[in-house]
Amino acid sequence: MTRDGAVRIRPMVAAHAAEVLEIYRLGIAGGDATFETTAPAWEAFDSTRAREHRFVALGEGGRVLGWAAVSPVSDRCAYAGVVEHSVYVHPGARGRGVGLSLLTALLASTDARGIWTVQSGVFPENTASLALHTKAGFRVVGTRERLGRHRGAWRDVVLVERRSPAVD
Asked: Quick one: which of 64, 82, 85, 87 has the fewest CB in 10 Å?
């Protein structure tokens, strides 16, 4: 947050790399954010997320409070308007509207570029993420049971999606 309490949403650039990857590492360490076990190097992160649809939330002093980004779900032309997204908020900035600000910016960006479906998989234990997605206009499509093993246990994944009202 800035001194006036506002969160500034800006495009993610390489200068944000260290803070973005640290927030990603913190999410991984929490155990309910992703199947990933380590954050990638910036080059791998950068090359797999669409540059036109990735944002950071900046607080006081330009500190990165969170980030959101999308990746294509397929290279098949039928899925050109379908992306998978991630949104991560620093543990010290949670509960302040950072995630909703990021998702709002991300959805405005994807709507403007003709993306018709933004989707993600969320562990059912991540109730804060599920509530955030509901608030941002996502719906639960279903649950994939025992989708993968994580830290020695089978994990379910709740599929959420948001269809763009801007794309006919």
From this structure: 82
Rounded mean pLDDT, 89-98:
96
- pTM beyond 0.90: yes
97-117 confidence digits (pLDDT tens): 999 999 999 999 999 999 999
- The highest-level CATH class for domain 8-163 is alpha beta
SS3 (DSSP) at 162: strand
Closest among 75, 78, 24, 74 to 46, alpha carbons compared: 24
What stretch of H or E contains 147? strand 139-150
Answer whether residue 21 shows pLDDT above 90: yes
Give the separation between CA 116 and CA 163, rounded to whole angstroms. Answer: 6
Taking CB atoms within 8 Å and a gap of at least 24, the contacts of 138-143 are 138/162
**CA–CA dist 86, 108 (Å, integer):** 15
Domain ranges of the chain: 8-163
